[in-house]
Amino acid sequence: MKRTGMRASFLVLCAALLTISACTRHSGAPGVTPRAFGTALVSVSGEKQFAGVGSQLEQPLVLQVNDAKGVAVAGAVVRLSAAGGAFATPREGLTGPDGQFTATITLGGAGGHYQIVASSPTASGQQIFMRVDESALGYQEMLGAKLNEIHCIRCHDPESTAERVSNMDNLTAKPHAFTDGAVLNPMSAADLTSIISHGGVAVNKSAEMPPYGSMLTKQEIAALVAFLRAVADPPYLAQGVNYASN
Amino acid sequence: MSVRGRIAAAKAFLFGDSARAFGTLSLALLALLTVVPARDYFRDWRGVQKQYLQLIHGRNDAPALTRHFQGGVQQIWLPEIGVVDRCTTCHVGLKESTLTDVRTQPFRPHPPVPHSLTEFGCVLCHRGQGTATSVADAHNSSSSWEEPILPARYLESGCGQCHIQPLTGTPKLNQGRELLARYGCVRCHTMRAPDGTKRTGTDEPPSLEHIADKTSREWIAAWLRDPQAYAGSATMPNFQLKDDEIRDIAAFLIAQSQPYRSQKASEPAPVPSQDDAVIQQGASLYGESFCASCHAVQNAAGLLVGGNLGPELTRVGSKVKIDWLADWLRNPAIYDPASAMPHYRFDAKQIGLLVTFLSSKTDSDFTGTAKAAAAEPKQIERGRILVIERGCASCHAINGLKAPEDFAPELTEVGSRPLSRILFAPGVPNTLPDYIAARIRDPRSFGDTLKMPRFSLPQPQVDAIVTALLAQTARAETLPASMRIPARKPSDYRPAGRAGKLMDEMRCFSCHIINGRGGTMAPELTYEGTSVQRAWLVNFLKNPNTLRPALIRRMPRFNVTDAEANTLADYIMTAWQTPDFEGDASDDLRFTAADVQSGRELFYNKYACQSCHIIDQSKDKGYVGPTLTQVGSRLTAPWILHWLRNAQTLRPGSLEPVWNMNDADARSITAFLMAQKGAPVKEAARK
Question: How far is residue B118 CA from its own chain's centroid?
Answer without folding.
Answer: 32
